[in-house]
């Protein structure tokens, strides 16, 4: 990975019917579009563009356990995190490879039973989260109430970064409380972002909400507290830094809103994912060293370390088993042998695939922090693979108490 700081491994979780699938498709659509445009600029003949147009007509569907998209110089791996009642160890495994998550709730129902279950899991694995309030267009939408229930039921300090412009069928866009602009989403698929001055009627309430946001953030920064006491305008860099650090430390959850259905608010959500959720460098991952009485070791997300990866999802495909892996340190290389520390067997990686929203790309190697699909190995989920010479297990660290969902 060229710059690990620009990588995000995230999941999108929700109670069933909150719009998780629709939202994920929108994210793939916008970020996938960027990917294609870059391809064309990179010397393609435009054929990809036509393909994209087709894709646009058909709508992109998620079929993969992990999909890679690009957004503003960042790479985002979106890991499928099933949120249904069949809550199993499989789901847990998909949660533990995440560095951050988007918790989707609806503007009408707010926090529901499955939201609580998933949130509890994420807390257990220390996964920082953003909250996206979806379905702002629905009758009965009440984002303010939802924000209160997020705080009460999830015990998160919710920090709204936006103020809605209109509600229910009149939901038009949002006021960005960071830049203090009105943001509208034009075009049939909400593809164009139009920024304008805040409508007169909302100027005062936007000012108050921004003040509220800054006061909430000042609890995590003496520097900001001093600036506010002196009634000065804090620099944007400082606000972004506090938002990021407090989110990564799981002290706050930034809140965004929109409608996946009508494509309003997706681009600001992508911005928030890259701005506030952590990169693999921001998290400590530990393993057990089986050669040293299972002593704890902290894995180093660097390419020049011995390779350590965990298989978190197996998918049977017509052409064989595809194993989704997260690489925690070192580089995973095609053609190399690695050691399965559970079974004691060596396995050769015959192919490494990066899964984009509409194509699979064969790659030669993948670096620390990344998530890829590999072929040619036989294993179970939860298995750890290592370079020769080391013998670590990731699973035992996390396989703490079993989780039973009673909701
Ligand atoms: P999932 O079960 O969480 O994956 O939810 P889906 O994406 O399948 O959406 C459930 C239903 O809600 C579908 O009928 C969607 O069309 C609808 N839906 C999704 N997002 C929105 C939204 O922003 N507003 C409205 N009104 N409906 C939505």
From TrEMBL:
Keywords, ordered alphabetically: Cytoplasm, Elongation factor, GTP-binding, Nucleotide-binding, Protein biosynthesis
Lineage top rank: taxon: Bacteria
Location(s), subcellular: Cytoplasm
UniProt GO MF annotations: GTP binding; GTPase activity; translation elongation factor activity
UniProt keyword annotation of GTP-binding present: yes
Binding sites annotated in the UniProt record for GTP: 14-21, 80-84, 134-137
Domain Tr-type G: 5-281
GO cellular component, one term: cytoplasm
Family label: Belongs to the TRAFAC class translation factor GTPase superfamily. Classic translation factor GTPase family. EF-G/EF-2 subfamily.
Function: Catalyzes the GTP-dependent ribosomal translocation step during translation elongation. During this step, the ribosome changes from the pre-translocational (PRE) to the post-translocational (POST) state as the newly formed A-site-bound peptidyl-tRNA and P-site-bound deacylated tRNA move to the P and E sites, respectively. Catalyzes the coordinated movement of the two tRNA molecules, the mRNA and conformational changes in the ribosome.
Protein name per its UniProtKB record: Elongation factor G
Organism (species): Tautonia plasticadhaerens
Protein's gene: fusA_2
